[in-house]
Write the structure tokens for this entry.
Amino acid sequence: MTNPWAGEVAVTVDGETHAARLTLGALAELEAAIGAQTIVELVERFERGAISSRDVLAVIVAGLRGGGLKVTREELLTADIAGGPIAAAAAAAALLTRAFALPE
């Protein structure tokens, strides 16, 4: 079970559901992985709908790693993410949204 108030998003990989979240360390890894100067660049890409599959994969990897799963980009290249590319993109968007949402 995930806790959205902690920024967690459920991502099912190869039939196993994991809690993903973008910790500060995961965000730093994400910036490096996408070659961005700031994370705002990636957020703006999502907002404009100008994301690539590489961006989605990088966010998912960072989120899973932030959630404690020791996974690499290469491992996810051949993994089955439940719901396919659309669900992966939705999970990536939710991770970014929850990482920067202010508590109510």
About this structure: The chain is about 55% helix and 10% strand. The first strand starts at residue 9 and ends at 13. The beta strands are 9-13, 16-20. The radius of gyration is 12 Å.
